[in-house]
Model the fold of this input.
Amino acid sequence: MISEPSRHCTVELQALPSRIGQVRRIISAQLRFWHLDPLIDHAALGVTELLTNVHRHAQPDKSCTVEVELLLERLMVSVHDHDPRLPAVREAGASSTSGRGLALIAAVSESWGARPRDGAGKVVWFTLPAPPRCVPLPPHPVYGATTDGPFEPYAAAYPAERTPSATRSSVVG
Done:
């Protein structure tokens, strides 16, 4: 489910390896839609790590909700699951094949944290600073609102010997 596509995106899923890639693509598409392309790599990496933690550690089930929200020039990505145990950053050995997810999130994000969720479970989140807004484009002209158009007046529309009659309009009422 995507709600208020201009500022908020929510995805509910089972944190299975096949679904993690799908959610990463959904988040990337949503950030492109919001014109936040510079944040895609870090957001996708962070959400992958959080969903992998749900897949590996969450009990009693793997169901979770991913939320992406743009608030006051900050992108917040959070994952809600049903396991009340809060995560802890671990020291991973040089030859370890896991245990670096939260340290990686801490390295690429502006801030991150975890808190118990009302009821049961927890929320693990991270924020990324949104890039400065792009310079807005000037509004598109509304053709037909004036006698001017996107072309040179009368260019190629009328032979040189013929000119159109004056444009007239009337307002009823």
